[in-house]
Amino acid sequence: MSKPTIYTQNDCPPCKIVKMFLNENQVDFLEKNITLDKSARDELTKTYGSYSTPTVIVNNEVITGFDLERLKKALNLV
């Protein structure tokens, strides 16, 4: 499995919870903050068609919003 990527932004409580969930489950991930990185924002919208955070990419599966059940399934944590 490739390393998941999480798109976040400043002052996003669901982003913090998803990152906490990933850390608690010892999942190594790449964070891209769309507030600080315009290319990450462009990638999120143009490549993945998402306009909200958190958005997590797991093996090309796009998980938008706060969906821990879907994230668990995608990461084989169920």
Overall description:
It is a single chain. It is built from three helices and four strands. By secondary structure, it is of the alpha+beta class. Strands 2-1-3-4 form a four-stranded mixed β-sheet, with helices on both faces.
In short:
This protein has three helices and four strands, in the order E-H-E-H-E-E-H. With 78 residues, it is α+β, with helices and mostly antiparallel strands. The longest helix has 12 residues.
**Which descriptor suits the 3D outline?**
globular
Low-confidence stretches: none
Range of helix content: 25-40%
Distance between the ends: 16 Å
Mean pLDDT: 94
Number of helices: 3
Q: Indicate the radius of gyration in whole angstroms.
A: 11 Å
Order of helices and strands: EHEHEEH
Overall SS class = alpha+beta
Give the helices and strands, then pairings.
Elements: E1 5-8, H1 13-24, E2 30-33, H2 38-48, E3 55-58, E4 61-64, H3 68-74
Parallel strand pairs: 1-2
Antiparallel strand pairs: 1-3, 3-4
Index terms:
single chain; 78 residues; alpha+beta; four-stranded mixed sheet; globular
